[in-house]
Amino acid sequence: MKEIQTSCGCGCAASRGTELKPIASGAEAASAAELVASSREGDPVVLEHPERAERDASADGAAGAIVRAGMVLLPGGEFRMGTDDKDVFPLDGEGPSRLVTVDPFYIDETAVTNAQFQAFVDATGYVTEAEQFGWSFVFHLFVPERLRPSVTSVVQSAPWWWSVEGTYWRAPEGPGTSIEDRLEHPAVHISWHDASAYAKWAGKRLPTEAEWEYAARGGLDGRRYPWGDELTPDGEHRCNIWQGTFPRVNEAEDGYAGTAPARSFEPNGYGLYNMAGNVWEWCSDWFSPEYHRSGESVNPRGVAAGATRTLKGGSYLCHRSYCNRYRVAARTSNTPDSSTGHMGFRCAADV
């Protein structure tokens, strides 16, 4: 196997832009393999790749036609963004909390589902970057047994992320796996470029980080989660994150080991689903841990350029012992061409 560098412990930032380091065989490869405590074998269905097309498929889109379907109009205004909590990741630029203002905007009730992304691909012939690269990152427990011998690289600091050839949104655990029973789950293995292309076709756009956090808070002021400060009020799970011993055993006490349907759990105060956990969601902003200290406070859009784009919300792999980034103020980033099995998106639109 080979190892890939990453900057985020849970593998949030497993990206394509890092150099591969060879682990040809022996103890190091065995050590990575030992992480596998169980696996989920996909349905043995061989799927044809969609015909290749130019990446900008917006010419065949339906701009403006569905801009309000499945969206919520938020009033905007001033809110408290970020956090002053001690249990944070300072290097991520989560704090300090500050007053930020956003204009009214629309935002999707849910992350974009496999069914929705499939409609986009069927209409345009769009080919995702995972397909163009020929591989994407799959969490080790989900790699089918028959595909494991062909895995040649893992993330160096997070060896539970395996690079699996032939993985893309329609075959999320590799060749022969399927989304047929997950059409209402969030589409994953979606890069920032892919998400932007879908949004343009749909007559929408990606939300800014400020808009996303305003929406996630659901009208609550300074709370840790979209529903309040307690993770499981009265013992009730409110989001899809990891329970158990990461990364070996997921007890799935919330009902899900991988992605959950996009309308799982109770929505927040704005009627938005899964603003914590399930899948990381792309924002339009270039990522910076310092911009908010001196940047705009009215409709902030981040730095003018950068190396990575911002992600918000956490995922089904987040666990307090390793990555409690399922908090509203938490943030991470990845290169805009990267894709994993826990990254998706939702769209916004101007009023």
UniProtKB/TrEMBL annotation:
UniProt domain Sulfatase-modifying factor enzyme-like: residue ranges: 70-348
Protein name listed in UniProt: Formylglycine-generating enzyme family protein
Species annotation: Paenibacillus xanthanilyticus
